[in-house]
Amino acid sequence: MKQFLVVVAPLLLFVGSVGAQESEGSGVDLAGVPAPSHGVRPESLLVRNVMVIRGNGNPPTGPTDVLVTGNTIDRVGRFRGKQAPKTVLDGTGKFIVPGFINMHAHLQEERLGNPMPVEYVLNLWLASGITTIRDVGSKLDRTLEIQELSARGEIPAPRVFVYAWVPRTETPDEIREKVRELHRKGADGLKIYSLDRDLLEAAMGEANRLGLRATTHIGVEETNAWDSIRLGMTSIEHWYGIPDAALDGLQKFPADFSYSNEVDRFRYAGRLWREANPEKLRKVLQAMVDANVAWDPTFAIYEASRDVVRARNKPWFKDYLHPALEEFFEPSLGSHGSYFMGWSNTDEVYWRENYQIWFDAVLQFSRMGGMVTTGEDAGFIYVMQGFGFLRELELQEEAGFQTLEVLKHASLNGATVLGQEHILGQIRPGYKADMALVNGNPIANLRVLYPTGTDLYVDGKASHGGAIEWTIKDGIPYHGPTLLARVKEIVADARAKKKE
Ligand SMILES: [Zn+2]
Question: How far is the CA of 186 from the centre of ligand 1 (A)?
Fold first, then answer.
């Protein structure tokens, strides 16, 4: 029943706004104006006759026009210019959404020492409508370099926000110095992972002093969500430290458990949410809301735990899975997240229950006023870049959010948590021209966003359609099928090389 309501409500909004169509407003003949070229920022671009999803949760408007001048959204409304724009895209029957913000990205160029060109992940992200990533802890110098190349429009890439990993040190003074050093080098924020309480307090004290935002991969460790709340953390990645903060005592592990063994660790992570005391959990969530700590749940990265057969057999692996990733995904204690050895149906049953409690907690958090974002954490656990992000949107719908809300999580909420809500995350005049033109209605079916498209049923006939046709980042249009064709080529080359 919940699923049924989720789909119907946005459709009603859609029908309501079609009645309010604006009329053609300009006498300028647009018939001969060319489409933009892939990867070249035109002086101006008009997306015509398109349904607009603004990104702030408002219902769609249109069909109408969106005018981009340079790298900025100039106007949302029927075109009234006296002169024809330099380029035009026809949006008839299509939707335009704000470029997506992937809050948990890793710029990977190798897996297990096997090279994987960064172009591979960048193209996958753009082809999936992602125009901004928050990189949470990759090689700092290289990430800053890609950030710069992207900002100058020299490579096809999303905008990059660099959240540098803070390594563990011996003393609080050393970690303060480390935070200052990362700030000097140009990090936009910090990624915190597994710090003991004294080190975490020192690092966060310095981060707050410098005005650096911070996000934490919160494990089962000395600190938990209460520390994030108390110390001014911007956001929490994943989830463990949230139920951990709501336990009566410690989690019940078997006597032969080792946290260093990933089979153990992920098996018993699947039994953590059930141990959270619901009353305590509600208090933790409320305190997160009050302290303005956002939650980036990354549902999609854990999904193999509840259905490993699905995870291993995604249709897009055939043409688009890079062999370096493929090898990394093979079960092995040496690769992070490749813990599927002896994974049983019982493990999956626990994980499905785990997901239900987790879904409810994220929904409850949002309904209390909490900020939910969308991050993918791809490159691990059978999750490919871009596709993983889009799966995250689907899982947030499964958690009980309307698709229109999920799209807000992926745009305005991400921009807000990055502190960029005045220029990113909305289709609004004056904002950066970061958008994706979708062949279909993502409110009715999130699957139309997949770069490979999806199966449809139109006028009594089965067909294949959907997909993002153009991703526009900073006013530069990138053609979806061209990006994806390049990914296929990179993969085919790498597979051929591997055979040699
Ligand atoms: Zn990660």
Answer: 20
